[in-house]
Amino acid sequence: MKDETQNDQFKALDKCHREIQEHLDQLTDLFSRLEADSDSAHCRQKAKTIEAFFSSTSREHHAAEDKNVFPALLASDNAELVQAVRTLQQDHGWIEQNWLELAPMLRAIAQGEDWVDMAEMRNAIEVFLALMHDHIVLEETLIYPEAKSRLAQEMASRAARMAP
Hints:
Number of domains: 1
Strand content: under 5%
CATH topology: Four Helix Bundle (Hemerythrin (Met), subunit A)
Shape: elongated
CATH superfamily: nmb1532 protein domain like
CATH architecture: Up-down Bundle
CATH class: Mainly Alpha
Radius of gyration: 19 Å
Distance between the termini: 20 Å
Largest sheet: none
Structural class: mainly alpha
Number of strands: 0
């Protein structure tokens, strides 16, 4: 049962990465549209959707990684792996800090307010996109495969112990 739950968690984490990438693409598209027409209903709705996603689902995703994926990897004797996990934990802090700067701008756009400085927003978006992209690449190329491999080994070991 525990193994199935862990497999389901990885499926959910993988799905969330796809959703994050979709929302990052939408954020990129939104900003290019905003420079042309910041007061359109389409831009306001897109800003609202993007802000809601990164203020909830993405944050919950990072909390799930911190709780369910990272601890076992931090206990590894592989220094490179431990350092990668520590980098990802630090990333979560940087992503959150950047998001706290960007989110109010998106909320303002969603509400039709006009106080947002587009140059400041461009910088915040560029930083956010870079942080998220690098973070996801490290997770998908090293951390998730390692965590999934460890889970598979644990499941095989349990199955072998339970076999008659």
